[in-house]
């Protein structure tokens, strides 16, 4: 069976939301099982957060001194984007993950952009959000389905700006083109395969078989 990243995200979202299995089987799947071996441990299905590569690239193009990428492809991203990407491996312990993010940053964290998928836990989002500095900003743009709780006193005492963002503003496309023209946004990391318009069916088949981060299929009239 062949699939791309978005297919896997849709499958895991439906699975963990209870749309694929009866409630009893889903509960059994998510129940931990004692491991009898330190390496070959048995465990329930676990889906961790995956940061889209375009998000990392947008952070770099805005001249941020450091972009923290807590995704699972951390080593590959560090090689692709260089030292400005500080990777953090999440442990599942909220306090420890928050401290790891702060230690990985080159200085106080000015802004946290959450774009976690529906499979992420609210504790992971909260760990990142509360790593922001005094008077920092937290932008929620992810897809988690559960309510996110943040301490009222922490928001007030630290002058935190919290906002939601659905998709992008209308002027985003124009600003993106301006960044391309100015050379601030480097597209060399993307591998682009072009097809003429009369080979549209071949382009669709190629995209389905060769999808993934940094792989683009383009139909040129």
Describe what is shown at a glance.
This protein has 221 residues and is of the alpha/beta class. The chain contains 9 helices and 7 strands; from the N terminus they run αααβαβαβαβαβαβαβ.
Per CATH, the superfamily of the largest domain is NAD(P)-binding Rossmann-like Domain
What structural category do the secondary elements indicate? alpha/beta
- CATH topology of the largest domain, by name, is Rossmann fold
- Count the E strands: 7
* Fraction of residues in H or I helices: 25-40%
Cα-atom Rg, whole angstroms? 20 Å
Strand content: 5-15%
The overall number of domains is 3
Rounded to the nearest angstrom, the distance between the terminal CA atoms is 32 Å
CATH C-level category of the largest domain? Alpha Beta
Poorly predicted ranges (pLDDT <50, ≥5 residues)?
35-58, 60-66
Placed side by side, the strands forming the largest sheet appear as 3-4-5
Mean pLDDT: 77
Give the number of helices. 9
Along the chain, the helix and strand elements come as HHHEHEHEHEHEHEHE
CATH architecture of the largest domain: 3-Layer(aba) Sandwich
